[in-house]
Each structure stands twice: as C-alpha cells, then as structure tokens.
Amino acid sequence: MMENIQATLNRDPAVQAAKPIKMKSRNVTVHYGAKQALNGISLDIPEHQVTALIGPSGCGKSTYLRCLNRMNDTIDAAKVAGEILLDGQDVYDPDIDVVELRARVGMVFQKPNPFPKSIYENVVYGPKIHGLAHSKQDLDEVVQTSLRKAGLWNEVKDRLDEPGTGLSGGQQQRLCIARAIAVSPEVILMDEPCSALDPIATATVEELIDELRENYTIVIVTHSMQQAARVSQLTAMFHLGDLAESGPTEKMFSNPDDKRTQDYITGRFG
Amino acid sequence: MSTFTIILIVLAIGLVGAYLGYQRSRSQMAPEGMRPHSRPIYHASFVASWAIIPSLLLLAAWLVVSPIVIAADVRGSFPEGVLAESQLTEDLAYGIVESLGTGLQVLPADERQTVTDTTPVKDLIDLLRQRGVPVASASTDWMVPMALHLNAMQFWSRLAMTAVVIALALGGAYWGYRQIAVRLRARNIVESVVKGALIAASSIAVLTTVGIVFSMLFETVDFFSRISAAEFFFGTTWEPRFSNVGSTGNAGSFGFIPLLAGTLYIGFVAMLIAVPIGLFAAIYMAEYASNRTRSFVKPLLEVLAGIPTIVYGFFALVTVGPFLRDLSAQVSGLLTGDYASFIQAQSVLTAGLVMAIMLIPFVSSLSDDIITSVPGSLRDGSLGLGATRSETVKRVILPAALPGIVSAILLTASRAIGETMIVVLAAGVAANLTLNPLEPMTTITVKIVAQLTGDLEFDTPQTLVAFALGMTLFVITLCLNIYALYIVRKYKEQYE
Question: What is the mean pLDDT of the segment spanning A264-269?
Fold first, then answer.
C-alpha cells in the first residue's frame, strides 16, 4: 500500500507529468488470424495515474488492453508481437508466469461478471487462490478493506452471504472492482467498466476510479469522451489499429495535435 | 372408399379452397384503397383450415365411434341364450361373427349372393374354407344373419362417413371462402389455429404417457390381487417358475429385492466409472481442447452414443467378460498357484464396465453442452484475477454448471437403470442377491423380458409380474427425474 505523501503529491499537476513509467509497450502488433488488429503501438503508462484509451469502435483499444495482462492468450487465433514491459520486465517473456502476471495486473470487464457465489466468496476468490490470506480473520479483513475501497461496504455489509448476482448493475461492477483489488494488484485494467451502467451508477464508479488512483495504476478503455476527460490524467487515442496520439488529457481535449483526434472529440466520426 | 383416399380428397379440397381464397383475397384488396387486415396467404390458410380441420376431426371421431355403435347393435340382437352366458362367451361369439363377416367380404360377388339369412353356417364355412379363410368350429347357424347384418351396417356406415366428411370439407371451404373480407382478421385466426395444433401435439405426448401408465396399472393391480405387495417388495427370492397351462395355483416366489439390488448395483458400478471419465472428457473438450480438436473429438464421442446397446453386449460377452475371467485366473495363479478365476465371465463388474463405456458419451456430451453454456465472462473474470485454468474450472465453471451436470447425471442414471441388452449378455439372467461384484446378478428389465418371452397367458402371476416390475421401474425413474428437476430449480433460484 502506498504512502500518504505519494497520494498528496499525486494531486499536484506538476508532479503528475514526472511520474515513473509503470508499463511500457513498444511496437505491439496483434493479429487475429490473417487480420491485423493493432499496428505497432508504443505507449507509456505512468504509475498512479489513470490512462484512458479512447477511439471509435473496432479501433483496437480493447485488444491493446487485453495484451497488457495477456488475456489474449485465451483466444486461439490471436498472435501478439512486440514488447510490453511491466516494471522493465517483458510480460511475454517465457520466464514470466501468466498467472502471476494477472495477479499483478488485474482486470475489470465491460459487463459486470460476478461469480454465481456469495458477495463474500466473490471477494475472497482471488486471495484464496493466491494464498494471500491464512485465516478466517485475514479473509474477513480482506473482504472489508476491498469492499470499502470499492465503496460498496456500507451497502452490502449486512448481506455478505447473499449471491453477488443479486446486486444491481452498478453494485455488481463495484463488486468486480473489489474482487480485483482484493488480490492487491499493481495495475488495474478496466474495459469500458461503465458501459452497462446507468448514469448514477456510472458517476459512483467514476468517483471510485479517481480514488483508486492513489494506490493503483489504472488503464481504462472508454467510449465516452466525457468520461475520459473526467477520470483520466493521460489519454491515448486509437484509430483503426494505430495509436493516433497520446498525451495529458487536458491537452488532448483542448488542443490535440492529430487531426483524427480532433475530428473524434468534436464528434465528426466515431 | 378407404380412409386414406378420403383424407387425400379432403386435403385436395383444402388446397383448392386455399387457392380460391388467395385469388378472392387478392381481387378484394386492389380496388378500394382500404388496407386489408391480413395478407392473402393468411386468407388462403384460413379457407384451408375451415375445409380440412372440422372434416378430419369428424372423420377421426367417426372411425372411433362407429365400430362401438355397430358392435352394440349386433350384440343386442344376439339370441337370449348367448346373452345369458358370461361376458367372455359373448365376446367369443362376437369375434366369430366378425370373422365370418370379414370372410364374406373375401368371397367373389356371385358366391356372396348365395349366402342369405337362412344359409346354414356349415355351408358358409365350407365356402370360406375353399377360399382359404379359417373359421372357428364353435360357429352356429344364428351367426350367419348376424354376420350379414354386421357387414351391411359397416358398409352403410362407411358410405355415410365418406359422404358426410366430404360434404363437411366442401361446406367448410365454402364457408371460409364466403368469410373473406378486407377487414377479416384472418392472420389472428390462423395464428390461433397454429397455436391449437401445437397444443394438440404436446398433449398427445402427455396423454400417451398417461395411457402407458394406465395400461400397466390395471395389470399391476391384477398382479397384486394374486401376490401380496409385501411378498413382492420385501421378498428376497426371485423364482417365479413358469406356470403350466391352466394351473394357476403353482405360484413361485416373486421377491423383487434381488432384481432391485442387481439393477442398482450394476447401475452404480457403471456410473462410478462413467461419471468421472465422462465429466473429465467434457471438461477437456469444453475448456482445454482447441477448436480443431473439439470439432473432431465431439462428433466421434457422439458416434459412440449411437451404437446399439446389443453391440456393447457382444463386446462384453466375447471380449470383456472372458478377458476379466482370464486375467483373474492369471492373478490368482501367480498369487496362490491355483489357476482358478475368481471373476466369473458374466458378472456385475463386466456389465458395469461395458455399460459405463456406453454411458461415457452421454455424460460427456451433455456436460460439454452445459459447460460451454456457462458465460465466457465468468471464465474471463476468473482468469483475469490470476486463476489458472484448472482453478477456474474447479471454482467457477463447475459450480455454475453444477445443476445442469447433476441433471445430466441423473438422466444418465435413468438410462443405466433401464438398460437391458448389455446386462443380459454381460451379467446373465440369474437373480442372485449378493454384494460381490465379481458374481452374476440381473436387473429388473432383464426379468421383464424373461417373463414376457414365450407363450403368454395374461392371467397368471408369472406374466403379470412383468407389469408390476415395469411399473416399479417407471416409478423409480420418475422419482429420479423429479429429483433432477428439483435440484435444477433450486440452484437456478440461487443463482438467478
């Protein structure tokens, strides 16, 4: 867990620019069979920042996100080339254990996908698998801290035994975030986490993402440019498998260098 | 006119009606500029429905009712002496009258005309014999006019039926045709006809089941009036013996326990082997195999499910059984120096083993469908948390798929319990009561076949017991299926 000083520093825009790089990708290409989905993406993801990936549908932003914790491994036809470094280490290195990687780089999906188990069991799923907790007290504590961080504790503390699937959509998504936090990842990847939620639930989750930045590095794919503007410090614009432009969010939305970014954020396509 | 011809004529009327209705509907639509409620095709179906459905329903009703009415009429005019006798004698007499009637229809027209109400039955029988029609010797003279009367009634009934049914079809078609109008809601009407047809189809399935149960029920009740239920359900000796014709007194022992034990034991051994293997195969196919492997292995396994069980029986009889026997002989020889096999060629183990081979594709194919229907998002969620594939399967996929898998297993269990051919060939027909899986045992289904094979007399407990066994088996599988449904429902509530 990170120190408070760090958290305070994070709020200072001048410090943000000088963040150390958590994940670095160089010339990443992805093929689905014969079709090329990503053409040489090079992007730096700074620590304790929210990096938003925006762009029209089918531009490759989700594909890129799924490269970061090798979720593309589960798709037979996907072939990834290039270099992705986590703290300087190539995640596609044969020495890297993919299971360990995913424990460090967690993921929250587009559609809330709580397991058909109780709320409690959902949260302790990861810690149990990775042997992070050794006693019932440890587990209880993990459940409480994770749910607190996800802003869900007060809503569910009296019904931890009830199935996670019985929660509302927004609560389910926050449960999934709590589930991801419970394994103490360093990076959390979010694939359009609010696209299945109503505006109120979206606002809650966005607020949560902003708070999580203190402790985690976050990469979020979003369709909504307003959302990118609200939650992120850095934005990367994808277009047809290319990285059109990346930079501080404020600059991207006020004064983009790339014509495609300008067209997209002014609503000319996408 | 044969029933088939009548149906063809009705269908033809329906088709013609549909065509005319289509034309009429088209011609009505064009001029007024008023939007018709239904498209012409619905008007056509509407006319066809009116032509076909009422007339075919009438046809079916007529075919069912007319023999009953005719029989009642003919029996009513039987001589007093016959009516005074038992129901059985009357049935017998009516049977002879019926066969005389059928025989008369075989005769050429000129010979048939020589037969009148006063013809002695002996002459008629001679005539029929020349044509190769055998008639029971218990015939008497009064039966000839009865047979003639019967034939006449059947003839007129059929004639009337043909006329009425075709008239109804024509009338229906005309009525439907007249109804066609721009605002006629033909679409809604046709839709409800379709719905009615679907309901009829499903009720046939349900009613058939009910019918099967009842057909077994009466015989079962009959059986229990001869043999006490306690003796059947709690008896430990199965030795029904075959009855001698006419002597209903020498009942054997009808203890059902050895058969139930054999059924459950063989089924248990089979499930013990088939469930883990089938389930693991399903997990491999659903979670680990590449699409290519899967597209190759799954059909192969399903082919295995299509092999007739008698073939598995052969396999047990000529390969597995002798192999186990010889193997046990070798093992015993090595250990004790005495080459006596301790596994018999026909045994519970052999039957269970071979039945398991038969069941594996069922378990794996059903479970595979269920596992693949678990949403991929759950799989991603678990993998995204750093779980391995096997952890994902064990902790997320299988629990989510559990209700489906349990019902698949229970479905397979009903099959195991109902299996006959494998058991006959692999475990034999001896109704032993033993706990040793290396000895032969037999099952309920095998004994049902045994009791119903050969010359049958449906008034001895030896035969009737088959129905009691069948009924018991039905109840057992019914309970299994209800339990499966209960489990599925319980889990569904929990997870939805």
Answer: 76
Calculate the CA B225 to chain-centre distance.
Answer: 27
DSSP one-letter code for B317? I
A132 part of a folded domain: no
Residue of A nearest to B287 (CA): A74
CB distance from B391 to chain A under 8 Å? yes
User: For position B30, what pLDDT does the model report?
Assistant: 58
| CATH code assigned at A73 | 3.40.50.300
> Residue B195's domain spans which residues?
186-220
| Number of structural domains in chain A | 1
Residues in chain B, overall count: 496
Whether residue A76 lies within 8 A of chain B, CB to CB, comes out as: yes
Contact assignment for B377 to A113 by CB distance below 8 Å: yes
In a domain, A146, yes or no: no
The answer to whether residues B178 and B244 belong to one domain is no
CB–CB of B496 and A165 under 8 A? yes
Structural domain includes residue B230: no
- What domain range includes position A93? 4-113+187-265
Inside any domain, residue B226: no
pLDDT of residue B101: 84
The strand pair at A187-191 and A78-86 is best described as unpaired
Q: Do B86 and B179 lie in a common domain?
A: yes
CA-nearest residue of chain A to B400?
Answer: A116
Is the entire prediction scored with pTM above 0.90? no
- Considering only CB atoms, A116 lies closest to which of B383, B386, B495, namely B495
Q: Is B381 on the interface with A (CB under 8 A)?
A: yes
- What's the start-to-end Cα distance of chain A, in Å? 39
Give the residue among A27, A23, A120, A118 at the shortest CA–CA distance from A68.
A23
Residue numbers in A near B385 (CB within 8 A):
102-103, 106-107, 125-126, 129, 179-180, 183
Nearest CA in chain B to A103: B386
- Record the tokens describing residue B80, joined without a space: 């007093």
pLDDT in the model for residue B26? 83
| B107 shares its domain with B199 | no
CA angle B209, B212, B216 (to 5 degrees): 145
Q: Which of A104, A115, A163 sits opposite B396 (nearest CB)?
A: A115
3-state SS track over A206-239: HHHHHHHCCCCEEEEECCCHHHHHHHCCEEEEEE
The Cα–Cα gap between B293 and B85 comes to: 74
Helical spans, DSSP H, in B240-347: 257-283, 291-306, 309-314, 321-336
| Mutation site for A-interface testing, chosen from B295, B385, B494, B495 by largest number of A Cβ within 10 Å | B385
State whether the Cα torsion B151-B154-B160-B163 is positive or negative: negative
Same-domain status, B168 and B191: no
Residue of A nearest to B388 (CA): A99
Same domain, B177 and B201: no
How high does pLDDT run on average in chain B? 85
Tokens of residue A21, six digits: 């790089």
d(CA A16, CA A247): 12
Put simply, the answer to whether A109 touches B400 (Cβ < 8 Å) is no
B495, pLDDT greater than 60: no
Cβ distance of B386 and A71 shorter than 8 Å: no
pLDDT winner (highest mean) among B96-105, B278-287, B421-430, B455-464: B278-287
